[in-house]
Amino acid sequence: MGRIAPAIAAPTTTGDDVGFVMVKPDGVADPAILADIRHSLGAAGLAITEVWDVELNHDDLKWLWPQHVNVRCPMTSYLLDRYLANAPSRIMTVTGTDAVARSNAIKLRIRQRYGYGPFANCIHTPANDAESHAQASFLRSSRADRLRTPVPVLSDRRGVYGRVAEMQAQTLRDIAETVRRRARTERWDRMTYTPIGAGPAALLLCDDNVNSIDYAVSSLCTVFPRLSVGDSLVAVLRAAQEPFTVAYGTEDEVAGWAARLRAAGQIIERRVVASREAHTSH
Predict the structure, then answer these.
(1) Whether the model pTM is above 0.70
(2) Fold (CATH) for 2-148
(3) What CATH class does 162-277 carry?
(4) What angle do CA 254, 199, 201 make, to 5 degrees?
(5) Can you give the residue ranges of every domain in the chain?
(6) DSSP letter at 85?
(7) What b/e string do you get for 202-229 counting C-beta neighbours within 10 Å, with b at 16 or more?
(8) Cβ contact 55:1 at 8 Å
(9) What is the pLDDT of residues 15-45, one digit of tens each?
(10) pLDDT tens, 230-256?
């Protein structure tokens, strides 16, 4: 991770809370998004006291997001690398009352306006004061210090399992790359997916913000043996934006699928499809 632009000196004393915003490469590349972020920060009463650009590498991503970048999540690790590594991100240190909470509210609004999914969402902000301090300290540190900084240990972050775990990591990365290329033409939140099954009831997958993408893909592939890993990945990424229909069936079939997925920790909705909309062939 290399500093590209010199930091703007911050005030040495302040009674305000301190937080930071990371504008990701897709946000940095779009002047309208940058302008919107700056305007939103100012409107929220937050002052930008430092700005600098960084280029993250794989080791940096492992430290910043160990729950996503690890050997148990090969698809997420690969997609985050392709999204964030070796391209400029912009760090803005902000000060003001409730800086971290207000920055998070701005992140949600910016992602709603411009984001297309987990790998095209423009902006990152720390979840709380402790994470803000840890990540800001890491981003400011020298390369030598970063290399000596242990990667945070997570209590349990579930990754691939079942038939997905039996596949070679390179095969899973290749599948992720195929999906990434599709997203470049179809857009992450519009990639085509044909729900499996037929019937008057629908099974919808929701974003739970707890399970890893790789774990959710494995869960779908376990419950639906005919579902490919690539299609499962598309469904999980689509569900990250809004509840997404994965399968149709009878009410009993959908209830059974939902029970198995809930047992695996997935958040599921069941809906009855109006007769004129019921899917009969897929």
Answers:
(1) yes
(2) Alpha-Beta Plaits (3.30.70)
(3) alpha beta
(4) 45
(5) 2-148, 162-277
(6) B
(7) bbbbebeeebbbbbbbbbbbbbbeebeb
(8) yes
(9) 579 999 999 999 999 999 999 999 999 999 9
(10) 999 999 999 999 999 999 999 999 999
